[in-house]
Design brief:
heterotrimer, A: 372 residues, mainly alpha, Alpha-Beta Plaits, three-stranded mixed beta sheet, two-stranded antiparallel sheet, 9 strands, C: 396 residues, Formate dehydrogenase/DMSO reductase fold
């Protein structure tokens, strides 16, 4: 069946309409370089100052009203194993013994509050959002529990309440957003005796970190971790050991996570539009080919029928001709025979009258006779 | 139809076999210990840079210990009774020739052993097992240096004979100079110096590389002695290149000074000599140039393991290459850079800074920002006043005397406690820090005890004693940026209680207290009180007043 | 005296139509599955899975979602072949394929309700708060729409069974739009499932990770669908033969042949673009590692080999070979999806931190698959899927 004009417009409308619905996704993050909301806050973690006392963990637990841990926070034996943030622990301190370093190095791990977070990009219900204060905030009222944010996070930070059957939540450091809004510092920053955590505007923290590295070049690695990693984070680190020895990956690159999938998302409306064209086109092509095949078939059949007819008629004519001539010949033959028979009979009847044979049988034909 | 299915089955089996064969390579990556001391990278020199493969990695001890039982002749040829430590040849044969040699001899031996079913190295076909950049082996080989103790043991060894019999010392056994005129090496008494002055890292012209000469000289002698059953140094890689084994070599404490006519005190100055030589009538020292330095050479010699640390290119004066503007020989390193460069232990300042990182000093010094020229007091070293060299002395002896006098004076001053002192009774015995008391009681800090201990440790150290003239310098270690270290202001004067991040790097009060104390303990290696033992410094507060 | 009626043959008494082996096995699985369902919704995910914070996705996503969607691609592929490319003789393959796809997607959503923390909130991303920066949103939206499309595409069979003539007529009018919409939606979500992993290049092994992942997923879904159609038909032929009508029986072989030929081409093309992906990122060195070997096993053994078998089977017109190649391809697709989501995911972590499914997860997956099979069997038995309804002879 062919495409009617109405159907065509219907499909075009659908294509345009769907494109409009998806158009908002086409804003690729690739050409924008987001350097953070101005004045957004961050924390600088000076790893060389950390002594692994775990007071930050205790403060976080208290401020967020988390359940009391199995092993108390002043137990330092837990540092023997590398831990990661989990459902009841938004932050952990780990101990590392890098090569060529006489003393152990301690690192506090928590959400890095990236400038362009992978988790925010991944969340399909906008349960995770980046706020202007710099914190990446989680809204438990929207979360479906798909855990794509956990997959997406390059630092493996978000944890999940797997043992909660009805109201499981994603858990991670909140940058103490409620405290920040009251002009207080995050709980961990306040608790640290060594001021290994410094809270302030991100731009200031980068300056401070750079200054410390310059002032003590023998102490620090010449790299501010979090300045550019994954597009930059609001949580920055400077360390007195190579970051790769501290379980901090340096192969993450500087591309922000949303830029990794913006290309694929941008392709969606294009696919929708072009596929409508291609599919209809293919259909139209195959229909047209069928149609042409059909027409050619009909033509061929007709042509065949015509030639057959012509030949048939010719044959009939020939047969008729032949029949006619045959008939005439037969008629002639019969007439001749009949006449000869009549003549014969006449000869037999009139031998007394004349001895002359009847030459002409025709003269024997009954004529108008005067006497009987 | 079914015959095709059965034909497909062999195909499947073939694929399965092919895949499974790949699963079991002949050489599973052996679990090597990652740090090896005998790793040699074999790379044939080729000017045309036609290399197609990375360098081959060869473990020397692995071969000598298991196969040849430390017998060098298994792989090395002799020239004039000395082994040439090239592989199976006396001269290099170019890229193609040597490549063939290595492949035939190395892989050939492997293949022979492989045929006999013995464990062997890779075959010629397994290129990447030798020519590998990513195998887990890492070289932890430390360079070997002839320190004073080792040198002395060689000096007094009866097994080492001088070149010509009858010489009093056996220096000529190792030391020689190259005479270009006759194209030979000769021993010149009084000119003994380090091998590295001529034998550099790479082969240059006819001068063999340091690695080549070190091995050929040392190992040949050791090997010869071993073969005559005499006690000698080792011939395997690990014994010299493993830092642990190196540390285990018997040390002669207080080895006598090497006799090389070296001075005890030196008057160091570049311009003074020029001034002395110039024909100008006035011999007054110029006001344009810095004061000379009286350098205590004897003390520094005693503190260094070998001359090479400072005399890194020759035993001439520094100024011969390190001129005021730098020269080609010094790679344009100027004299002031050579003397004052921060990061380099060859320079005076650099070596001093390295000393400041030692445990005795690091408590304070690691927390101080590295000072540049701006904050320095140059007269600490440039102590020879112009009046002492007015007029400029003519002969060298006079210069040495001036230097010696100054050095002598300083040495005496160091022990005597000159400079500002603070009476012990004036130092507070105990200080209670309770400004920030919240969860804990105030910290009771044994102030006098700490100052006394630090002061004693400094006295023992000549460097500290020189630069810390008097107690107030010590006070500055903690009471930094104080106008009067003897009467320092409260820490809270500059360190706020509720800190905003200071762009000048000032921590808040809590961070300042903890950072100061804890960092000092950490750097000085003081185990107690542990940084995380909060109660050791301040007890828990039983009733917290919030 | 009359003889008593002859006793029915012994076999007729023994033959029990309720407790067939199929029913026993599937029934057991379903009962266990119900128990597990109760466990899931009373004790939470942690009580029955080996999922943890470092491995948040397990086989419920890796197999149920990813493989389920890939293998349900037969629906749109067959529709495209029949209605867009004009291969009319494929029409008898359309309904079973659409049914498989519909059940497949339905079960994907069903499986999601186990995996997701709050399944009652699954409509949120579509109706309440659209996270449009997320590829997963795009997947969710497309799957939601496609499920509806499939339901509508399958409804003719249901309407015929219910004899709702007018409904059947209306649906017939819009079927072409549904087909086109279905193909578009399928392209989008098949490729987006691959794009999900573009967000985590640091966690997927370089050999499997490529900027072309969406293309790989899309192309592989096409031949996965084709193989599933062939595979399914081989099962139907064996177990549900009595439901097939003559046309279906005869044409299915031609369908298999046609799909075999296309699949062979597609799989060769797929291998080509995989190689291009490796060249693009200069990942050749990884091929010489253990992971490289595993990758080659997947590409050569589970894509290359069946491609060759398809080609040979087509040339020799050997249906058995084609069917073998088909289920081998299905295994290959499962392997590919499991590789990307589970095996080559978090590949750098030490073995102690890697994930392996618990028996309860596996059982739940089995339960979901069994529901699908049982539903398929019931629907095929009742509705005109494998045969043409006598009242609607030409409306397929």
């Amino acid at each position: 069946m062919g495409i009617t004009r109405r159907q065509f417009f219907g499909w075009m409308g659908a294509a345009v309409g769907s494109q409009a619905a998806f158009a908002s996704q086409a804003k690729a993050a690739a050409t924008n370089h987001f350097t953070g909301h101005p004045g957004s806050f961050g924390v600088l973690h000076d790893i060389s100052r950390c002594i692994g006392c775990r007071k930050c963990e205790a403060a976080c637990n208290q401020v967020n009203k988390l359940p009391a841990p199995e092993i108390p926070f002043d137990d330092r034996a837990v540092l023997g194993q590398i831990r990661r943030p989990r459902a009841e622990a938004y932050t952990v301190v780990n101990q590392f013994k890098p090569k060529n370093k006489p003393a152990a190095v301690f690192v506090k791990t928590q959400c890095n509050h990236c400038l362009e977070p992978a988790c925010v990009s991944a969340c399909f219900v906008k349960a995770l959002t980046k706020s202007k204060t710099g914190a990446v905030v989680y809204d438990a009222s929207l979360c479906v529990g798909c855990r794509y944010c956990m997959i997406a996070c390059p630092f493996d930070i978000p944890a999940y309440e797997y043992d909660n059957p009805f109201t499981p939540e994603i858990t991670k450091c909140t940058l103490c957003q409620p405290r920040i809004e009251k002009n207080q510092r995050p709980g961990c920053v306040d608790a640290c005796p060594q001021e290994a955590l410094t809270f302030g505007a991100r731009e200031d923290l980068i300056k401070i970190a750079g200054q410390r590295i310059d002032k003590y070049p023998d102490r620090y690695e010449k790299h501010i971790y979090g300045e550019h990693e994954m597009g930059g984070c609001n949580w920055l680190y400077i360390a007195n050991a190579p970051f790769t020895d501290l379980n901090m990956r340096e192969d993450l690159g500087i591309t922000p996570a949303p830029a990794l999938t913006s290309g694929a998302l941008a392709a969606v409306p294009v696919v929708v539009s072009l596929w409508v064209v291609f599919i209809n086109g293919l259909r139209a092509i195959s229909k047209r080919k069928e149609q042409i095949a059909e027409e050619e078939k009909i033509q061929a059949v007709n042509a065949a029928v015509e030639t057959e007819k012509g030949r048939f008629n010719l044959e009939i004519k020939q047969i008729k001709e032949k029949a006619r001539t045959e008939k005439e010949a037969a008629v002639e033959k019969e007439v001749k025979k009949a006449l000869e028979a009549a003549a014969q009979t006449l000869n037999e009847i009139k031998p007394a009258q004349t001895t002359e044979p009847v030459k002409n049988a025709e003269t024997l034909l009954p004529e108008k006779q005067e006497n009987t | 139809m079914t015959n095709i299915v059965s034909a497909a089955r062999p195909r499947l089996i073939f694929f399965a076999l092919a895949i499974s064969l790949c699963l079991f390579p002949r050489h599973a990556a052996a679990a090597q210990s990652p740090d090896m001391f005998d790793l040699i990278h074999i790379r044939i020199a080729d000017d045309a840079a036609r290399h197609e493969m990375p360098a081959a990695r060869f473990l020397h001890d692995k071969h000598t210990k298991t196969l040849t039982d430390q017998n060098c002749s298994a792989c090395h040829l002799k020239e004039k009774d000395r082994f040439v430590f090239k592989f199976q040849r006396l001269k290099d044969g170019g890229l193609d020739g040597d490549k063939r040699l290595y492949h035939e001899k190395c892989a050939g031996c492997h293949e022979e052993r492989g045929k006999k079913g013995l464990a062997s190295g890779p075959f010629t076909s397994e290129c990447r097992l030798c020519h590998s950049q990513t195998s887990g082996i890492q070289s932890a080989a430390q360079p070997v240096a002839m320190d004073k103790s080792l040198h002395y043991r060689h000096e007094i060894s009866a097994a080492i004979h001088p070149e010509k019999a009858g010489e009093k010392t056996n220096c000529s056994a190792c030391h020689h100079e190259y005479d270009k005129a006759i194209d030979k090496t000769l021993y010149v008494k009084g000119k003994e110096s380090a091998c590295r002055y001529c034998h550099k890292a790479a082969l240059a012209d006819k001068t063999r590389s340091f690695q080549t000469v070190a091995h050929e000289s040392c190992l040949n002698c050791h090997y010869l002695l071993h073969s005559t059953k005499q006690k000698a140094g080792p011939t395997d890689c690990e014994a010299c290149h493993d830092a642990n084994r190196l540390a285990g070599i018997a040390k002669v404490e207080d080895a006598p000074r090497i006799k090389r006519n070296q001075p005890d005190s030196v008057l160091m100055s570049l311009w003074l000599k020029d001034a002395q030589l110039s024909q100008k009538a006035s011999k007054k020292p110029s006001k344009q140039f810095v004061n000379p330095v009286a350098f205590n050479h004897k003390l520094h010699e005693a503190k260094s393991e070998h001359c090479y640390i400072c005399h890194h290119a020759s035993l001439e004066t520094c100024g011969a290459c390190h001129t005021r503007l730098g020269s080609d020989q010094s790679q344009l390193t100027r004299l002031d850079q050579a003397m004052h460069s921060g990061g380099n232990t060859r320079s005076c300042v650099g070596c001093h800074q390295k000393q400041m990182a030692s445990k005795d000093c690091a408590g304070c010094h690691s927390q101080m920002v590295k000072a540049g020229f701006a904050g320095a007091d140059c007269t600490e070293c440039h102590s020879i006043g112009k009046n002492q060299i007015d007029p400029i002395p003519v002969d060298k002896a006079a210069w040495t005397q001036i230097a010696e006098k100054d050095v002598h004076l300083r040495t005496e001053q160091r022990g005597s406690g000159a400079g500002d002192q603070i009476k012990t009774s004036e130092i507070p015995e105990e200080v209670t820090i309770d400004v920030l008391s919240d969860q804990y009681e105030g910290a009771k800090f044994p102030h006098r005890k700490i100052v006394t201990i630090l002061s004693e440790r400094i006295q023992k150290n000549e460097l500290a004693g020189h630069f810390h003239d008097g107690m107030p310098t010590l006070c500055n270690g903690c009471h930094h940026h104080s106008l009067d270290p003897a009467a320092p202001p409260k820490c809270a004067s500059c360190h706020g209680i509720a800190p905003e991040p200071e762009l000048d790097g000032r921590p808040g009060l809590k961070g300042a207290y903890h950072g100061q104390c804890i960092t000092c303990h950490q750097r000085m290696g003081i185990p107690t009180p542990a940084a995380t033992d909060c109660n050791a410094c301040h007890k828990n507060r039983t009733q917290s007043a919030r | 005296m009359e003889h008593p009626a002859p006793a029915p043959p012994a076999s007729a008494i023994r033959q029990n139509t309720v407790f067939t082996p199929f029913n026993i096995i599937s029934g057991t699985i379903i009962i266990i599955g119900c128990v597990l369902t109760v466990l899931r919704f009373t004790k939470g995910i942690g009580a029955m899975t080996n999922l943890n914070d470092t491995n948040p996705w397990g086989i419920w996503i890796g197999f149920d979602l990813l493989c389920g969607v890939a293998l349900a691609a037969g629906g749109y592929v067959t529709c495209a072949a029949c209605y867009i490319f004009g291969f009319k003789h494929f029409r008898c393959a359309v309904r079973p394929a659409v049914l498989t796809a519909f059940l497949g997607y339905g079960l994907v959503v069903f499986a999601l309700s186990y995996d997701v923390g709050r399944p009652w909130r699954l409509p949120y991303p579509i109706f309440l708060s659209q996270g449009t920066s997320s590829i997963l949103f795009e997947v969710a939206l497309c799957v939601f729409l496609y499920l509806n499309v499939l339901m509508l595409e399958f409804s003719p069979a249901a309407f015929e069974w219910l004899n709702w003539k007018y409904a059947r007529y209306i649906i017939g009018k819009v079927s072409m739009v549904l087909v086109i919409f279905g193909i578009i939606l399928s392209t989008l979500h098949q490729s987006s499932l691959g794009a999900l992993f573009l967000l985590v290049p640091s966690k997927v092994h370089p050999l499997w990770l490529s900027g072309y992942l969406p293309v790989y997923f899309f192309i592989s879904s096409i031949f996965a669908g084709m193989s599933m159609v062939i595979f399914e038909h081989s099962l139907v032929e064996r177990f549900l033969h009595h439901k097939l009508d003559l046309e279906h029986e005869v044409e299915s072989n031609n369908v298999a042949m046609g799909f075999a030929k296309s699949a062979a081409f597609l799989m060769m093309g797929y291998i080509m673009i995989q190689l291009i992906g490796i060249a693009m990122d200069n990942d050749w060195k990884y091929l010489f590692t253990r992971w490289g070997l595993w990758y080659l096993v997947e590409i050569v053994g589970f894509v290359g080999l069946p491609a060759i078998l398809f080609a040979i089977g087509f040339r020799e017109q050997n249906i058995k070979l084609i069917q073998m190649a088909a289920w081998w391809t299905v295994l290959g697709i499962v392997l590919n999806r499991l590789n990307i989501s589970l095996i080559a995911f978090n590949w750098q972590l030490p073995l102690a931190q890697r994930y392996f499914p618990s028996w309860m997860e596996i059982m739940t997956t089995l339960f979901i698959v069994t529901i699908g099979v049982v539903a398929f069997k019931i629907i095929v038995t009742l509705m005109p899927v494998l045969y043409a309804h006598p009242d609607f002879p030409d409306d397929h």
